[in-house]
């Protein structure tokens, strides 16, 4: 009995209840899902970076320097005192130094550059593709949270089944003792019943390990402390008949329309097509405006404090046309075309894999529904079998072994029903995830 007290104390430890909806919502904020959201933020910034090249560019520059010129020989033009004609004679000059100051600003604006516009368009498409990929990751994270939630709930419910089995074994011990004291059965029946009770208590105690494992795995996935004790709140599915699966045709249709991965693959194909347009943009001239204002002089006062002096203005309209670049442009175009084909192949393969995933999930759900119905029938038969075995034992026509066999069959039937019924729900959520209908309202 001391062991049962320990088990009761462990099971009664303070716990945090978690509903199925809590697990689904928090699962979409798991670490893997958050990392994908960060990837989306990076894609958003990539769009802003691409847009910046199309906006005016302003740069301000200033510098102060000094130039030193050493002693040197140079020719100087002088008048010959005899002939009166100008002549050049070598003259040695003294070392000199001059100061140099500059203050300026440059304004440039792209008027037309097809490559820049296409790069902006491509980054927008990649951002949208990342949005779909982020939702795909969030759906995956939610499904894993659902699976771990039901795994924990199954362990909790299994412990209730095992506890009920312990109670039946205790009743059998009392029944065998009473009949032994009444002289209707031998002592071996009571001893056998006690051994069976001890084994059942051991099984119940050992289930605590699985309970702790399932609690920890759910807590970690929901980004909660690994030491937090969670309790899966009964979602009420065990008291309901499982709803039928949708038709396979409807499931495939919804998957083609809503599965985020397919949308991401389609946008990746579009991005590859834009990459080809970017490569071809080298065939087209670019046009830009440039304005330069500068102030230069040999002294700081004139450059930095006297606005009337040292002013220079330059305005340019630049036309640039890369007529020949060593056949780089056609090579880049062909490479982009190969990337388009690769993206198309990835899209086609993903479409096939998703159709196969939908069919597999659909078949699994239908099979689990049938298995759950059969498990319910088995439980009813096992309940009747245990009732008959107990009646035979009370009448002195049966033995503890017969009761034990019927008891184990009932426990196995109850655990099988529990397993299959929960597998129905996991299979249903798996189908919803394959269809892209797990949380259609979510964008992240």
Automatic annotation (TrEMBL):
Keywords: Cell outer membrane, Coiled coil, Membrane, Transmembrane, Transmembrane beta strand, Transport. Residues 362-392 form a coiled coil. The keyword Amino-acid biosynthesis does not apply. SUPFAM superfamilies: Outer membrane efflux proteins (OEP). GO terms for cellular component: cell outer membrane; efflux pump complex. Transmembrane segments: none annotated. GO terms for molecular function: efflux transmembrane transporter activity; porin activity. It comes from the Bacteria. The keyword Coiled coil applies. It is found in: Cell outer membrane. Belongs to the outer membrane factor (OMF) (TC 1.B.17) family. PANTHER family: OUTER MEMBRANE PROTEIN TOLC, SLR1270 PROTEIN. This is Outer membrane efflux protein. It comes from Myxococcus stipitatus (strain DSM 14675 / JCM 12634 / Mx s8). The lineage of its organism: Bacteria, Pseudomonadati, Myxococcota, Myxococcia, Myxococcales.
């Amino acid at each position: 009995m001391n062991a049962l007290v320990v088990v009761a104390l462990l099971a009664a430890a303070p716990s945090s209840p978690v509903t199925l909806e809590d697990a689904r919502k928090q699962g979409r904020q798991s670490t893997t899902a958050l990392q994908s959201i960060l990837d989306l933020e990076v894609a958003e910034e990539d769009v802003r970076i691409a847009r910046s090249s199309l906006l005016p560019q302003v740069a301000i520059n200033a510098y102060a320097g000094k130039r030193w010129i050493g002693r040197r020989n140079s020719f100087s033009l002088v008048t010959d005192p005899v002939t009166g004609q100008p002549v050049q004679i070598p003259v040695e000059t003294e070392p000199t130094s001059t100061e140099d100051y500059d203050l300026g600003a440059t304004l440039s604006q792209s008027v037309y550059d097809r490559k820049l516009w296409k790069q902006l368009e491509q980054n927008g498409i990649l951002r949208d593709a990342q949005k779909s990929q982020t939702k795909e990751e969030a759906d995956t994270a939610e499904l894993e949270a659902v699976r771990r939630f039901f795994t924990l709930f199954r362990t909790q419910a299994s412990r209730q089944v095992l506890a009920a089995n312990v109670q039946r074994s205790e009743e059998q011990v009392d029944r065998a003792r009473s009949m032994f004291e009444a002289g209707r059965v031998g002592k071996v029946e009571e001893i056998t019943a006690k051994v069976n009770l001890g084994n059942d208590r051991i099984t119940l105690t050992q289930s605590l390990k699985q309970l702790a494992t399932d609690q920890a795995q759910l807590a970690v996935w929901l980004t909660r402390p690994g030491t937090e004790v969670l309790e899966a709140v009964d979602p009420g599915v065990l008291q309901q008949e499982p709803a039928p699966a949708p038709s396979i045709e409807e499931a495939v249709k919804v998957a083609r329309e809503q599965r985020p991965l397919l949308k991401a693959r389609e946008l990746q194909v579009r991005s590859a097509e834009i990459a080809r347009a970017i490569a071809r943009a080298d065939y087209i001239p670019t046009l830009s405006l440039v304005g330069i204002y500068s102030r230069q002089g040999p002294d700081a006062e004139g450059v930095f404090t006297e606005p009337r002096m040292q002013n220079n203005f330059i305005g340019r309209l630049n036309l640039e046309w890369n007529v020949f670049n060593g056949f780089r442009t056609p090579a880049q175009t062909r490479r982009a075309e190969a990337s388009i084909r690769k993206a198309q192949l990835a899209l086609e393969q993903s479409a096939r894999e998703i159709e196969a995933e939908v069919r597999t999930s659909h078949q699994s759900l239908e099979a689990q529904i049938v298995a759950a119905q059969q498990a319910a029938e088995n439980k009813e038969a096992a309940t009747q079998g245990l009732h008959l075995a107990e009646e035979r034992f009370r009448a002195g026509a049966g033995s503890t072994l017969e009761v034990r066999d019927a008891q184990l069959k009932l426990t196995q039937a109850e655990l099988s029903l529990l397993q299959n019924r929960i597998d129905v729900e996991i299979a249903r959520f798996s189908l919803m995830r394959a269809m892209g209908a797990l949380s259609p309202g979510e964008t992240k």
